[in-house]
Amino acid sequence: MAKGLDDFKNISLALPLWTRDFILLSLANLFVFTGFQMLMPTLPKYVAALGGNSLVVGFTIGIFTISAVLVRPWLGREMDRRGRRGIYLFGLLIFVLAVLAYSMATSILFLLLLRLIHGVGWGGSTTAGGTMVTDVLPPQRRAEGMGYYGLFSNLAMAIAPALGLALLEQTSFQILFLTSAALALAAALVVSRVKVPPVAGQGGSPPALFEPRAWRPSLIAFFLTISYGGVVTFLTLYAAERNIANIGLFFTFYAAALMLIRPFAGMVADRSGPAPILIPGLLATALATLLLSLAGSLQVFLMAGVLYGLGFGSVQPTLQAMAVADVAPNRRGAANGTFFSAFDLGIGLGSTLLGAVAQFTGFAGMYALASLFSLGGLIVFLLGQRRITT
Q1: Which of 156, 230, 257, 342: CA 20 to 30 A from 251?
Q2: 48, 57 in Cβ contact below 8 A?
């Protein structure tokens, strides 16, 4: 055991993680997610200013996901054919133009069109960014690296909503949109300095829309994010129904647990394989949603938030590392496109499907059902492990 630990430490020292390119990509990830997340609490206010009701607000937010899901596989194939950086910069250009055009929207219909275009840019930049990171990370430390890379988007999720609201309160929608676009441009400048290894002709089958070797982690992510879609969409409504004040603390505790577990989980997954992370992680998310169905006090909500953060924060980067493991460099774009499409589709389907369930069972029943989806992901993993070992 001691020898194994020494060998692991030697590998870590021999394969540096925090290279110049990894730092630049992580910084770009922070900029992109900050520019995106600062619009999440403010765009509904813009929709309302244009005359939209709550139903239109939900549709405006959700339609963004549709275009992102549709373009990810195609863009993944194109980055395997033509390289990563061009797709990343193309996505950021679309991102910038769409956000700048928000201030010119004079109708809900025009805004919906811009949201569809924005989704294309988001799908391109995030898929290419995730693929470039897998290219520059040493395979033996890939899960650990993906954990750190995700910390930058988590940091953006923690600070950007408050930043967006404060900026809107002090200035205007035009300044808000300009700031979001400027952050995307900053990410483009940073990524232009990254040295991305060439991928054309580096073994494997020809580039394709989907990567079959990524189907199992993608399916697990799909089940997990169905649960996640229900947690984030309906939590505030559920808390109000239970007369729970200060429910925003749930997301604070969730984010803290998620950020703490990511690097540790990645190191364990790199050393011992995905099972020691995925099995307890998926069980933790299932237990968290089941706990939410029984929650009657803020303390129980916060316990569920910590559990869900620990589970989701450990499982997500491990699954993404699995999606590109044993995949040829010229198929990693397809692998990431497959993974992120399943991820987005799960969130969108989760908010829709579980919202319909809540109409019949109430929020408590909905959260109890949501726990089964995490268990479904666990079953997919265990069946795959059994097939590998037999």
Answers
A1: 342
A2: yes
